Amino acid sequence: MRRRPGPSARLKLTLSYAGFILLAGALLLAVVWGYVLRYLPDNSRGLLGINPNRSVVLHVFVPAAASALAFLLVFGLVGGWFLAGRMLAPLTRITAAARTAARGSLSHRIAMEGRQDEFRELADAFDTMLERLESHVAEEQRFAANASHELRTPLAVSKALLDVARSDPTGDRRELVERLHTVNTRAIDLTEALLLLGRGDRRDFAREPVDLSLLAEEAAETLLPLAERRGITLDVTGGPAQVSGSATLLLRVVTNLVQNAVVHNLPSGGTVVVHTGTGAGGTSVLRVENTGDPLSPELVPTLTEPFRRGAERVRTDEHAGVGLGLALVASVVRAHDGTLGLAPRPAGGLVVTVRLPGAPR
Predict the structure, then answer these.
(1) Cys staple from 291: which of 54, 258, 270, 337, with CB 3.0 to 4.6 Å?
(2) What is the maximal distance between C-alpha atoms in the chain?
C-alpha cells in the first residue's frame, strides 16, 4: 500500500522539541512580565523616585526577549535534530536489518548492544523472529528437496520398468504389473502423507469429540496381522482419553505410532504397548512403547524431521514407509495444541508420549 510522502520522524521530533523549548521560553518571559514589569510605575520618577520606569524597561526588555526567543528557537531546532538522531539511531539499524531480510538474507542479526531499553527489546525480538524464520525456511527447503527426491524415485523406477518391458516384449507381463503396482502404491502413500501433513499444519479441520482409547483399539486391530507375522506382542491398556479434534487425523497419528512401533522392533519376540488415559491438568495421554535396538539420545530428537530415518531404524521391506510417519504425527499433534515427547528406552526401543488438551465436559 503506497502512502503519501510526509515529514520524517526525526523532523517531527525536532519540531516538537523546538516548539517545547520556545513555549517554555515564552512562559518564562510571561512570568517575568507578570511579576516584575507590572509593578513598575509608568511615570518619569520611576519606582520610589528612582529610574528606570516601565517604559524604559520595556524599551530595553522587548528586544532582549525577542533575541532570547530567537536563540531558543535555533537552539531547539539544532539540539532537537541532534538528539532525535541519537534517539532514532537504533531504529535505523532495525530498519536496515528489515530491508536486508526483505531481500532474502535471513542470516543478518542486529545484535544491539547497550542497556535493556525499548529499542533493545525491539531489536532482540526482531533477531529472534529472524532466527525462527531462517530455521523455518531452511526446514521448508530441506522438506521440498527431500519430497522431490522421494517422489522422483518411484517415477524413475516406473520409467525403468516400462523401458525394460518395451525393449523386451516377451517378458513376464504379470511380474511387471506387480512391480508397477508396488511402486505406484508407494507413490500414492507418499502423496497422501504429504497432503495430510499440509492439512495438519493449516488447522482447517472440523473438531469433534474423540476417544483416543477407541482409536488405539482400532489401530491395534488393523495392525495385529502385521504384528503376528513379525512375532510381536501388541497390547492396548488404559482407559478413556477424551479430546476434541479430527478423528481422521488422530487415527492416522495412532496408526503411524503403532505401525512404527511394530516395524522398528526386534526381529522376533518383541512387544508393543499402547496406553491411553488422563494426565495432570486434565490432559489426555497416548503412550506407545516398544522394544527394539538401543537408540542414541542424539538420534531421537531428529526422528520427527520429514524424511529423516535413523540408520538403526531403516527397513527395506514392504513396510519401510515414506519417512513421514513421525513428522506427520508431530504436525497433527501440534495442530491439536498438544505436545509430542520421544524418549529412548534403556533396554532398547522407544517411548512416544502424546499429550492433548482434554475435551471439555
Answers:
(1) 270
(2) 137
